Amino acid sequence: MAHQFFFNPYILDNLPSPQTGFDVVQDLSEPNLRMYITSRGVKTFFVRKRVRGRDKRIIIGKYPDVDIETARGAVVDVLNNAMKKPVVRRKKITFKDFVDLYMTNRVRRNEDSEMKLRRSINLHFTPLFDKYISDITRQDIVGVVNNIDGKAIAARMQDLLQSIWKYAIEQGYTKENVADDLPKIEQKRRVRPLNKSGLQRLVRAIDKEQDIFVRAAFLMLVYGFAPRSKVFAMQWEDLDFNQYMWRDWPLSDRAVVLLQDLPQDSFWLFPGRGGSHLADPRTAWKRAARAAGIPNLTMDDVYKFLMHQLVWASDREELRANMNALLDEILNV
Question: Quick check: do 3-83 and 196-330 share a fold?
Fold first, then answer.
């Protein structure tokens, strides 16, 4: 049975990830709304409904790209649409045109994330672009998936194809989901390479970074207890140094000292190119990771490691104290 509580951003942002598999939680405000939390920290809203004798789990979208109120508001429409029989249209549509329709109506991502997804689609799905979606066969799908290098990428693109075909059936462009029930692509679970001594070496390596904003952003991955996407997009207006808060999230002492020393010359704490925030400084990160002796370390590994070590507390002051204690323990202060 799913754990039940009133969904709010503070709780959802800080839900612990399971060691393996996934957990399910349920909203008390809208009991039909549920959420998957995977071992990788991915959180996805969904609705469970029995449709024509079969149990269906209908995905609404990933959190926080889809916020709580939007997800609650979508439940009624999702349930109503689930009960509708697919209408078969006579008009045909090419796969490429339908993907554009799918991206517009179903994908809710920030601009950078959407661009990455479109690049992957253009890279891997090109053989299907000029075919009518109703004429594409299961063999076509299998051929495309088998030509993708890397099991992790192939598995994600296979899931995307299944989602595209479900939407195509809902919209009446085809009757059969030729991407459904494909053999599951077995993946080796990645072992995260970080430990306490590795984090110490990483901080020393980051301190040598020449760019002040890149150096501060990397240190905030450690001091901020937040994922890369949130850290890089930090805004000055969201900080309250009097209360040691960043929106609804407490700031560690190290984070406060670090951020107060930054020049406030931009809307963003960590400005990037073209007036936007820092996006993906992978070259600088790889340089720091190699210097720390952990060349395969990712930025998200830091967040996962710290959140597994952090003693959770619902009281913000107690949580902040736990952050400070953990950083002092790891960094030997």
Answer: no
Domain 3-83 grouped into CATH 3.30.160.390 = yes
Task: Give me the residue spans of the domains in the chain.
Answer: 3-83, 95-170, 196-330
The answer to whether the predicted template modeling score (pTM) of the entire model surpasses 0.70 is: no
Q: Dump pLDDT digits (tens) for 267-290.
A: 999 998 888 899 889 999 999 999
What whole-number distance in Å separates Cα of residue 327 and Cα of residue 205?
17
| Cα distance between residue 312 and residue 309, in whole Å | 9
| Sequence-separated contacts (24+) of 246-252 with Cβ below 8 Å | 248/9, 248/10, 248/13, 249/10, 249/13, 249/225, 250/316, 250/317, 250/319, 250/320, 250/323, 251/224, 251/320, 252/223, 252/224, 252/225, 252/320, 252/323, 252/324, 252/327
Give the pLDDT confidence of 65-77 residue by residue, as tens digits.
Answer: 999 999 999 998 8
CATH 3.40.1440 fits 196-330, yes or no: no
Closest CA to 281 of 203, 211, 328: 211
